[in-house]
């Protein structure tokens, strides 16, 4: 009977209406919610410490500083591409702070694709937006969320954080 109840709950649970509905864990192992950022835009980025795009951490921090009050950058370390994020959460945090001065929020390490994809990234990769849907292709893909928690733009890895494509949405 319990299994049937669980299956029915899964079948009849409404899909998430916004990113504010997801329960997350930060890099320090503490629960956090994106709902605390209601009224601001969010730039959600899957990150990695040993990737050719890793220097984007510096631009992400500049963006977070330059547009403070308008957007919050949130990094989600992931090891889905070429083993480029092998470290534990504490190592990732230290690396980001020491090498790039990162002080924007970081999640615990998550999976952004595959069978173990985090529910947040399952939502982000299937949510309607004017750009594209589908699985994350590489590290440092960016998801721009509006003040109501809806995905409004998605950018591939090569789009730099301070590029006009992103900053025009923050002006």
Automatic annotation (TrEMBL):
Keywords: Oxidoreductase, Peroxidase, Signal. The keyword Oxidoreductase applies. Residues 1-19 form the signal peptide. The keyword Oxidoreductase applies. It holds the Pfam family GSHPx. Residues 13-171 form the Thioredoxin domain. It comes from the Bacteria. One of its GO terms (molecular function) is peroxidase activity. PANTHER family: GLUTATHIONE PEROXIDASE (PTHR11592), PHOSPHOLIPID HYDROPEROXIDE GLUTATHIONE PEROXIDASE (PTHR11592:SF134). Belongs to the glutathione peroxidase family. This is Glutathione peroxidase. It comes from Mucilaginibacter gynuensis.
